[in-house]
Amino acid sequence: MSRLIRRKYPWLLLTLSAAFIKQQSCICINRMMKSGLLESFLLFSGGDRHLQQIPDYTSPPLPIALDATPKLYRSDEVIQEARDLDAAGNCTVTGGNRCQIPFPVAEPSPVGVIFYCGALVDPRGYSPLASILNQRYGLPVVIPIFASDVAFAFGTCDTGRLDMAKAEFPEVEKWILAGHSLGGTAAMADMWSRWNEMDESAAGLVLFASDVIQGLGCGDTDFAGTELPMAHVRGSNDRILNRTRSVLNEAYDSNATFKEDIYGANHGSFGAYNDSARFEVLGQVDGELLIPSEVVWDIEAATIANVAARTGVSLTFPDPTWTSESSSMDDSDSKDDEDTSESSEESSESSSSSSSEPSEESRTLPDDKDAAGPNEDSSSERTVLAVTVGVLSSVIALGVLF
Fold first, then answer.
1. Per DSSP, what are the bridge partners of residue 116?
2. Which residues contact 66 (CB under 8 A, 6 or more apart)?
3. pLDDT tens, 360-402?
4. What is the Cα Rg of the chain in Å?
5. Distance CA 193, CA 348 (A)
């Protein structure tokens, strides 16, 4: 019978074979989606790209994230409108349809930050981080809004979001491109594109629970051998990131990469979003979070500030290790050691005077190159060192291992 069918009806066998292959392909895709491999599938799935199945789901922001979001963008309708604009290709540099959440600062800064969100995460889930960068480091931040909350698409080697950020904050000279998870892939792709175009405004790259990935249709992405200011950060309890791949891909990091492994952090702790439904929808199972998320956000912000301080421009954000109380106390103790016979009133005056003078010097880099003279480089180094020491001191105090 089988020989008869093969001989008289070969087209029937071909049809049945094609149907079987299609059925097995659909089963394979569904299994991948349900086993927490959405991001890997989006990055590495073979065959027809139209087979990608992105769920109608996004992880909502926590209340603390909404509180840190600019008032206009707390509305779900406003965020959805921006998603729809991006889906229709109507996000523009001019005209106000920039599809992003801006976080301005009181005093203009020469360095700004673009933060690309993780896959299927509401962009407001990263507002607490943006708020810290605003208030503690004086850095303006832009969080792009993408259709379906997916920042990266195959073959899109430049999202164009840097140009929209420039239009939002035209006073910014240098931009740090940072991203979490799949958002890190988008940040990396944009940076690679601008690096090859020699766009010096793209001045730093920070990857959180992400890595430099090859095979994205954008050429061989490789920052090795360059001095691009970078940071590469992972959480010790991250069960979503492919750690083996991430470690191997460190070979593509620049020579100026600051690497951190935050003990006790998991994948979701880099943002402030509710990830409780991601197992049911995506099959993702994250590790246990052993430290407060606020600690992770502090380290994230300090890491970005470290990269910002290495862009070669003058910054005015404060030294995170400096406080007026500690400065005054240290100066008073030093004065007492030098001359114990002086009166307490004279010692207090001397302490007040000495504490006020170095504070401005240590917190502000020179704006005028000629005025800075031969000490300009050392001043910049002190600022970088201050930020780095601030990160290390807070990390050590909280039991975080690098």
1. 179
2. 74, 124, 127
3. 333 333 333 333 333 434 444 444 444 444 444 443 333 333 3
4. 25
5. 57
Q: Extract the tokens encoding 400.
A: 């975080």
Distance CA(292)–CA(298), nearest Å, equals 10
**CA–CA–CA angle 290, 292, 294 (5° rounding):** 145
Torsion region of 142: left, alpha or beta (phi above 0 gives left; psi -120 to 50 gives alpha): beta
Show the CA angle centred on residue 69, arms to residues 207 and 89, nearest 5°. 70
One-character DSSP codes across 189-243: HHHHHHHHTT-TTEEEEEEES----S-SSSS----TT----EEEEEETT-SSS-H
Cβ-proximal residues to 217 (8 Å cutoff; 6+ apart), any chain? 154, 155, 157
pLDDT tens-digit map of 28-74: 333 333 333 344 344 533 323 333 567 788 999 999 999 999 999 99
Phi, psi at residue 257, to the nearest 5°?
A: -100, 125
**Which residues are 177's β-sheet partners?**
114, 205
- Which residue(s) pair with 121 in the sheet? 59
pTM above threshold 0.85: no
- Full DSSP string of 288-345: PP-S-HHHHHHHHHHHHHHHHTTSSS---PPPTT--HHHHHHHHHHHHHHH-TTS-HH
